[in-house]
Write the C-alpha cells for this entry.
Amino acid sequence: VGIVGTSGAGKSTLIKLIDRYFDVKSGAIEINGIDIRNITQDSLHKHIAVIPQDVCLFNRTLAENIRYGNTKATDEQVRQAAVKASADKFIERFPDKYATKVGDRGVILSGGERQRIAIARAVLKNAPILIFDEATSSLDSESEKYIQASIKELMQNKTVIAIAHRLSTLREMDRIIVLENGQVIEEGTHLSLLRKKGRYAELFKMQSDGYLPS
C-alpha cells in the first residue's frame, strides 16, 4: 500500500500509530484480526521493519550497524544482507571494510549509503511487515536506482506500507491511499487514480512536467 499526501496530511502520524508510539483514540488498528493494543510493543516491533528517511546510525562499525537488525546474525549473514541491499561494494572499498567505524550518526557515509545500511538491517530482520517512510526522498538518481532494486527484492512476500513524495516510486503498489487533513480522500491503483483526475492526478502532474497518461 502506498500512502500519499502533502505535508501535514497525516502520513507520519499513521506510521506512528501502526508502530504504536501512541494508541488510537477511536477505532482500531488490527494485524491479522488482532488489535495491536492487545500485544506488547516488543512483540509488535519484532514483526515490523522500518526504513526511515533519516537513518539512525551508531558510532560503531558497519557490521555492527547492520547487525542491529538481528543481533544474533553471523558475519556471513551480515555480508549477505549487505549484498542484497547493494551495500557490499561500497563497504569493500573502505580499508577496514565491515570493521570501519561510521562516526557519529554515520558521518563518513553519503545519504544513499546510509539508506543502504538501513535496507541491509531490514533484510537481516526479515520482518513480515515493512514500512518505508520517505526512504528515497533525499537521494540522487544513481543511489535511488540501486535502492529501488534492493527494495523490490526486499518487498517479496511481505506486507508493505510506503510513504513517498516521489509518486513514481509507488507505481508498482497494489493500492494507493491519498490522505488530506487526516482523511482518506482517494484510493486505487496508480492508473485508476490518474484516470480519476482528482488530487492524486494533480500531484502526479506537478511532478511529471504536466504529462498525464490517457
Summary: The beta strands are 2-4, 30-31, 34-35, 48-51, 129-133, 159-163, 176-180, 183-188.
